[in-house]
Amino acid sequence: MSDQNSLSALVRTSFGKGAARKIRAKDQIPAVIYGHGTDPQHVTLPGHETMLITRRANAVITLDIEGTNQLALVKDIQRDPVKQTIEHIDLIVVRQGEKVTVEVPVHVEGESAPGTIHVVELNAVELEVEATHIPQNVVVSIEGLEEGAQVSAADLVLPKGATLVSEPETLVLAVSVPQLDLTTDAVSDEDGEAAEAEGDVESIEDEERSE
After folding, report:
1. Taking the model in full, what pTM does it have?
2. C-beta of residue 6 within 8 angstroms of C-beta of residue 49
């Protein structure tokens, strides 16, 4: 675990919306740590450093809680719906060598066959992995895949030590040829013909008025 994933935390003794607002006004983030049968521990985290670490999904952080080290996995982040700033974080206690179940993002690489497109049906897969070795993503290559090709969860090449938890038959992505919207084209043609006919009628009327 690198120092970049280490944070100093302070024990929090004030609670409620008012207290949380005061904490955030000081560029700190309220958080709670729980798990392994321990009582929930309420702390505050440094705002900027925490934001940088949590850019990565499933971040594991070494917390220095007033002199006591604790390894914790970011379980849930609550954000302001408008500003998208972090308002609260839930963390769960983890230990070296322990396995956890997490959702890992799917990352698509390559290009499918010319004239085809790929549609991602599953943005993340659920895996069981070691808490201190959570992969950043699961890579899916679509290089050269033809129309009709499908990739299911069972087809994924998992990182070393990872076990699939998602249903194996779950569709991850499919390759197809984009379909033209013939209905729209037909309506456009009809509108064009109608406009042309209307223009002809107006021309005839203008000629009659001029005579």
Report:
1. 0.72
2. no
